[in-house]
Amino acid sequence: MADTQIKNIVLFASGSGSNAQRILEYFQDHPNIRVAALFSNNPEAYALKRAENFNVPAFTFTRAEFKDGTVLEKVKSFNPELIVLAGFLWLMPEGFVKEFHNKIINIHPALLPKFGGKGMYGHHVHAAVVAAQEAESGITIHYVNENFDEGEAILQERCAVRPGDTPEEVAARVLELEHKHFAPTIEKLLNG
């Protein structure tokens, strides 16, 4: 008999939340996976509004609450099968990584291990890719460990970087890959 137990996802986002939007849409009517909550370190994050639009509980928190276990306890109350970082910029505390070993994933807008690490997010990544005259960029969906962008890769997808491309042009191509692959990868991880 098929496993019909609902599997909860908890999203973390720091900004606009376009990836969160895609994930919310993808799992809106899913038979056994649902987005249970969205957490943000930024009270101005548009991702909070996106969650609200899908009737998904949304929470904000401070750095102190993130580090002292308050957020961890709140997240645990949703019994998540997977924690998904969808444009979340803070390093996950050790307690989270231990509690949810290989159950936290992130999407990075480059082909790790290149262009990863502290400070390498968003425009900074695409500008570095263009400056290095890379022939390609892409996305890496990976498990989260105690260090920025060093967890085991789950999926990499590539796109061309053309001569004369601006960081914005590369960003647009990379975002397309993010929107295309993130939610199906989550589904595959949870449903095999």
From TrEMBL:
Keywords: Purine biosynthesis, Transferase. (6R)-10-formyltetrahydrofolate binds at residues 63, 106. Pfam families: Formyl_trans_N. It comes from the Bacteria. It catalyses: N(1)-(5-phospho-beta-D-ribosyl)glycinamide + (6R)-10-formyltetrahydrofolate = N(2)-formyl-N(1)-(5-phospho-beta-D-ribosyl)glycinamide + (6S)-5,6,7,8-tetrahydrofolate + H(+). N(1)-(5-phospho-beta-D-ribosyl)glycinamide binds at residues 17-19. The record marks 149 as: Raises pKa of active site His. Residues 7-183 form the Formyl transferase N-terminal domain. The keyword Repeat does not apply. The active site is at 108 (proton donor). SUPFAM superfamilies: Formyltransferase. Its EC number is 2.1.2.2. The keyword Transferase applies. Pathway: Purine metabolism; IMP biosynthesis via de novo pathway; N(2)-formyl-N(1)-(5-phospho-D-ribosyl)glycinamide from N(1)-(5-phospho-D-ribosyl)glycinamide (10-formyl THF route): step 1/1. It is an enzyme of class 2 (transferase). One of its GO terms (molecular function) is phosphoribosylglycinamide formyltransferase activity. InterPro entries: Formyl_transf_N, Formyl_transf_N_sf, GART. Belongs to the GART family. Catalyzes the transfer of a formyl group from 10-formyltetrahydrofolate to 5-phospho-ribosyl-glycinamide (GAR), producing 5-phospho-ribosyl-N-formylglycinamide (FGAR) and tetrahydrofolate. This is Phosphoribosylglycinamide formyltransferase. It comes from Adhaeribacter terreus. The gene is purN.
